[in-house]
Task: inverse folding
């Protein structure tokens, strides 16, 4: 005979544990807090309900197959409520984590926003009133009327908070609700067949759409899942608003305890519970959307891997990498040296204005001498395309916690490209890679730590050691990238990043001046690439040291980025010919990510 505890363990506890283990490498502090709060809120409105229906004898439970009772309901029922909340919140997190939450803050017109919000609320109010009218004891409509009267007011509150946001995410929302609802209906059906609990025929409509499962149970399961999913959406919406429109409440370089972070998030959620997205500047979301498209189109591998970062970290990484791509293209997409230098001057002017309110104390440390910098946006509107301007504006919103030295390094790399400076030897190869890639890697590291508030020692020796080690990762990635793009760089840009000492004079001329790399024997091009890869391999010997000092929720994703580039390097070596541009197969990055997430020790 199936007892209640067995049902719990087999059908709710086990799936919850499995789903948690799947998501564990991807979970952020906020995700954990969201689960805790979802459980607390679910218990707050469900515990009175289960005791009320048992007291009114709409549902009753067998004493002989339960561990014990608290009030009118068995202990297992309370446990089921907790595990249902955890299971649905985890499932919703899995369904919604692949897109930036903030992109769904883009609201309708004020009229459409209010229409979506209040028309649904009106309908729910009407159904609640009907439920109250129909919830007459000892009648066939008592159970279904009580369900409507009790649960719909909670749905009304949640719809007011995040209804339009939920509509923006309708696909993920439907999947988050329908899949677990079908599963939990099946679990309830098993329970009722095993006679673990009974539904009174006197207070039920006796409509059985799914074998012996009453319509009231199906509606109850769907409504409870809707509430849990919308609670998760409400938390995500509030967090997205804070990530997009407000600065991090904790100081730069701060290491925040879990307790401080917990109560900080609690305060953020309460302060933002009734924030209306239509009152915020929608151009911010438009800029973010353009940055996301730039990043997606320019670096498909990194864009795909970035989906495994926490959502708030990923958002700033999207902005940072789109800015780096836009500024790089401003130099690359023009033939005239004079025009390239003009573009570099525009970037330099922007950064000078952006950091004009800072006083440098030491490397990576500064104080602000005014609340915000003064940027002449009218000037930049005349100099930049719409896409570039959106990227510059978005970057200006997150630059308050980024060190300007790293941006100045990046500009030095653009100056190198603008004048067509040659890479003469491996020292030049390191220097150029340091400018354009180590700087970016360090900026990404600042994003990871600032958004998670997990700096090791307030920019002390540990932080600086970690930053220097992660700069090597930037070097490795850039050198692999350049070894792969020998043909593309020659044909499209007339550039050669192969150290000149590797080449003969005619080979240099073919690559840079004539832009005819195919006139060089393919085996020779492959040899050049392998020499550069040897340099990268030497840097890879201790490449995990810096990664292990990163925030735990980001370590495995960063490792996956590095491993994907290393796999590209291996592919270059093993291919019989040197390709125009070497790519991994469609499933290789997925395999590498799964390996890094679940099968690599980070000790």
Result:
């Amino acid at each position: 005979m199936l007892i209640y505890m067995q049902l719990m363990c087999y059908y709710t506890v086990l799936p919850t544990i499995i789903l948690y283990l799947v998501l564990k490498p991807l979970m952020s502090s906020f995700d954990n807090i969201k689960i805790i709060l979802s459980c607390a809120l679910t218990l707050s409105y469900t515990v009175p309900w289960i005791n009320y229906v048992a007291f009114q004898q709409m549902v009753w439970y067998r004493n002989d197959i339960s561990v014990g009772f608290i009030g009118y309901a068995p202990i297992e029922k309370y446990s089921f409520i907790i595990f249902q909340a955890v299971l649905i919140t985890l499932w919703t997190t899995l369904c919604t984590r692949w897109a930036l939450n903030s992109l769904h803050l883009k609201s309708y017109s004020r009229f459409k926003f209010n229409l979506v919000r209040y028309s649904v609320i009106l309908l729910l109010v009407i159904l609640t009133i009907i439920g109250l009218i129909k919830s007459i004891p000892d009648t066939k409509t008592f159970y279904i009327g009580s369900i409507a009267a009790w649960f719909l007011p909670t749905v009304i509150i949640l719809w007011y908070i995040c209804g339009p946001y939920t509509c923006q995410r309708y696909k993920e929302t439907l999947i988050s609700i329908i899949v677990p609802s079908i599963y939990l209906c099946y679990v309830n059906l098993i329970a009722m067949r095993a006679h673990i609990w009974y539904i009174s025929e006197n207070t039920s409509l006796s409509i059985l759409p799914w074998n012996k499962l009453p319509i009231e149970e199906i509606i109850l399961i769907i409504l409870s899942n809707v509430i849990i999913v919308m609670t998760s959406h409400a938390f995500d919406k509030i967090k997205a608003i804070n990530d997009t429109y407000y600065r991090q409440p904790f100081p730069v370089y701060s290491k925040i305890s879990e307790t401080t972070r917990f109560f900080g998030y609690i305060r953020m959620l309460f302060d933002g519970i009734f924030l209306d997205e239509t009152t915020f500047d929608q151009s911010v979301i438009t800029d973010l959307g353009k940055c996301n498209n730039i990043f997606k189109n320019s670096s498909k591998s990194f864009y795909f891997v970035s989906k495994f970062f926490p959502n708030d970290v990923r958002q700033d990484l999207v902005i940072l990498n789109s800015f780096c791509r836009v500024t790089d293209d401003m130099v690359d997409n023009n033939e005239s040296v004079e025009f390239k230098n003009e573009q570099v001057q525009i970037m330099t002017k922007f950064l000078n204005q952006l950091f004009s309110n800072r006083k440098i104390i030491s490397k990576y440390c500064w104080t602000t001498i005014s609340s915000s910098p003064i940027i002449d946006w009218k000037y930049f509107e005349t100099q930049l395309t719409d896409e570039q301007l959106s990227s510059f504006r978005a970057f200006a919103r997150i630059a308050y916690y980024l060190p300007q030295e790293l941006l100045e390094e990046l500009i030095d790399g653009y100056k190198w490209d603008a004048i067509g400076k040659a890479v003469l030897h491996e020292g030049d190869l390191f220097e150029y890679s340091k400018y354009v890639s180590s700087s970016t890697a360090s900026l990404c590291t600042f994003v990871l730590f600032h958004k998670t508030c997990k700096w090791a020692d307030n920019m002390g020796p540990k932080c600086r050691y970690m930053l220097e080690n992660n700069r090597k990762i930037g070097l490795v990635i850039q050198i692999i990238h350049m070894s792969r793009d020998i043909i593309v760089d020659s044909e499209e840009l007339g550039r050669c990043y192969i150290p000149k000492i590797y080449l003969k004079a005619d080979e240099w001329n073919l690559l840079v001046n004539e832009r005819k790399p195919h006139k060089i024997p393919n085996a020779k091009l492959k040899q050049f690439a392998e020499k550069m890869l040897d340099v990268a391999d030497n840097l890879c010997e201790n490449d995990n040291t810096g990664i292990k000092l990163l925030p735990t929720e980001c370590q495995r994703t960063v490792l996956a980025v590095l491993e994907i580039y290393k796999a590209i390097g291996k592919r270059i070596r093993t291919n019989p010919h040197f390709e125009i541009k070497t790519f991994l197969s469609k499933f290789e990055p997925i395999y590498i990510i799964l390996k890094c997430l679940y099968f690599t020790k980070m000790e």
